[in-house]
Amino acid sequence: MSLSAALTLEEGMAHLASIVGPEHAQLRGDTVVAAPGDTRQVAQILRFAQSNGLTLMPTGGSTKLGWGNPVLPEIELSSHRMHALRDHAWQDMTCTVEAGCTWSAMQSKLRLHGQMVALDPLWPDRATVGGVIAANDSGALRMKFGGLRDLIIGMTIVLADGTIAKSGGKVVKNVAGYDLHKLITGSFGTLGVIAEVNFRLHPVEEHVRTWTVMAPEAALPDFFAEPLRALMDSQMTPSCVQLRVANHECALDIRIAGIPECLEEYAGRIESLCGKVTLTKAGEDVWQARQQLFDKNRALVIKVSLLPGEICSVSSELQQWAATEGHEIDVLAQATGLMTIALRSSPDAAIALIDRLRKKLARSGDSAIVLQMPDSLRGKVDVWGPDPDALPLMREIKRRFDPDRILNPGHFVGGI
To answer: Contact 139/118 with Cβ under 8 angstroms?
Structure first.
């Protein structure tokens, strides 16, 4: 506990233990880790933190704690006890789930009725619902079903002063109140603590097939620019499309769901769009490629947001740069315009690439965020990059929601 709070570590520990129970509060260095069992206890912890000027960090599965600027909180609020699927209205295709439920546990229960939340985040076995939403993570399924803001229909949030706020509802068509849940999504725990989430659901894709198209030897990712454009303009509706670039090779993965009788026809249409290249069936493991980039030893991992039409040209430029400089680079680009880059190089080369990439993206208002970096780059690279034009508005929102700056202070863009 901070000295400015005029509260000893032992006193803070005792008070939090009185809220959540002694067995659910522990010391970790100078941080008290408290695990509330319900929304009411979350509100009590936040009221205690604000009244004593204590910083607080919400955590779930801790899979993305390295994303953003580091925070050394006085209280860590762990959601692991709040893990229930509280309601599954399968007839209405909606559900309500607590924020501490892991993504895979939620999906397993929904599949009992042939339904799913149509999103494929990183590390689903460990990542919690609240953490996925706070980081606004999404995978290749975004191509067909949209991102989190398209799938969330309601949310229960505990604000910095302990107020329990509800946004949206439990039905898909709901126009009551403000879309507060869209503001909370991607706020990295700086505006409030997510307690429960209401999702709209989709049927599980039962019959799916993935094909991989390999570019000719020595071809750059630009090779796929025209086939990708033709695929997006076709009447086919792919679930997922991604471009993979690694070791001077590039491949296009396409996943389509449909009735079994139509899947072979889709294969023929994709082959005709791609020209004289080999089309092969692929396993579902190719959709783990993004996650595997984070597992590469001592890799710098960058998330890039850009226009979908630019993923091939930017990937080609990155591949040529790496070949010229003798560095190892892997690129995973989704057709939606989200790109993940893993680079293994010297610190100076990594800094040069980030600067070069950000200058290029700034012309069109796109961004490059560092999600993972080796220790040699700590303190040398700005995680979020240049301040966005919307930063004054973002700071005002932070001031309104958290005037005392107790929630993850400094973690987000511009030190929010």
So the answer is: no
